[in-house]
Amino acid sequence: MNRFEKLSLLTENMDVEEGEKLETAIKSCPVIPSTEKLPMVTYAKMSGGKTIPLLKSLITSVCEKNCKYCSFRAGRDFRRATFTPDEMANTFLDLYQKKIIEGLFLSSGIAGGGVRIQDKINETAEILRMKKNFGGYLHFKIMPGAEFDQIQNLMKWSDRVSINLEAPNPERLNILAPKKNFSDELFTRLKWVDVIRKNKAPNQNWKRKWPSLTTQLVVGPSGESDLEILKTSDYLFKNFNVARVYFMTFTPVVDTPFENIPAENPIRGNRLYQASFLLRDYGFTFEDFEFNPIGHLNLEKDPKKNWADIHLKNNPIEINCASKEELLRIPGIGPKRVELISKFRKHKKIQSEDDLKTLGLSIHQVGEFILMNGRSPIYQLKWTF
Ligand code: SF4
Hints:
This protein has 385 residues and is an alpha/beta fold. The chain folds into 2 domains: 3-288, Aldolase class I (TIM Barrel, Alpha-Beta Barrel), CATH 3.20.20.70; 312-384. The protein has helices at 3-11, 23-27, 85-97, 114-131, 148-157, 170-176, 182-199, 226-240, 266-281, 303-311, 324-327, 335-347, 353-358, 363-366, 377-384; strands at residues 41-45, 51-58, 103-107, 137-141, 160-162, 212-219, 244-249, 317-318, 370-371. The strands form 2 sheets. The protein has a 7-stranded mixed beta sheet with strand order 1-2-3-4-5-6-7. It has a two-stranded parallel ribbon with strand order 8-9. A hairpin with a 5-residue loop joins strand 1 (41-45) and strand 2. Helix 4 (114-131) packs parallel to helix 5 (148-157), helix 5 (148-157) packs across helix 7 (182-199) and helix 8 runs parallel beside helix 9 (266-281). The radius of gyration is 23 Å and the shape is globular. The chain starts with a helix and ends with a helix. Residues 63, 65, 67, 70, 72-73, 109-110, 177 line the site of iron/sulfur cluster.
């Protein structure tokens, strides 16, 4: 099997959190023989807002665990493949040099224990940074059961590391992945990343800063509520400075124990993202969300708009003197827009639709929730006609 055949097998069936395949770019790539299937390319958003294409691959699709939702689970009959760290690094660099991708997101099945596979991932990272002097974006998965020193070494070469908790608590994980131990194998490792970032100076790191940390939860098949998911997410944001919790809305895979469980509604994933951002960046608390009796958010409504409809429609906020916290409660206004509004107000009052437009705000979005100089912009609009 040549290395691009292997890459096709290793990238096949990987879930995509954000982004899509760059099929046209890959098809026209002279590096990949035209007979091969396309490797998986996803996008990652950088801190400055730029989006870059990433190769998302496993180092091996052999796995001894039996997670009930996963296409790579032990015993499932399909063609598997394994890269050595050198093969992984060189194949990635071939695609990088052809400008197909700009970064790597490397995960793995678990064959021979998490410690052994972590060594392979760490070796790939070290080859790319030390031997090949690769300076671009690298995101590496931390394996269940990885050792403290392995995690600390990996963090030296990474822009981002992630550990998938998969479920919001041990009871739910037991339904999804009976061979994984929530507290010991996963949660403790996630905590170590934060301990390392808090207690050690990143002097020896290639960028002299520690990587960001993310995790992922599978949404749907364990019967978990949105409240359970959001409570865990909020804990991770506040205690371990987790940059983002990804929500993988479940889709059944044939020949797995969950093949007959219906796919989760993707809108549920969107609502969870919206609510988690409100908890992380907007000062919202659980009391600000409406949960139904079984702990789910309303699928029909954006949770911020829902809050504003209840609290602001009859009590709009004066945009010229609102605090940062109050501004963040208005639909359409996020942390960046708050900065723009603060700068604008230093020079001039916000008093017209044009002023709102200058701030990137639509009167249709914010009009019913604000006052400008004591007057509703909706009312002002009516009189303009
Ligand atoms: S450990 Fe990872 S690759 Fe293996 S079955 Fe579980 S989710 Fe799939």
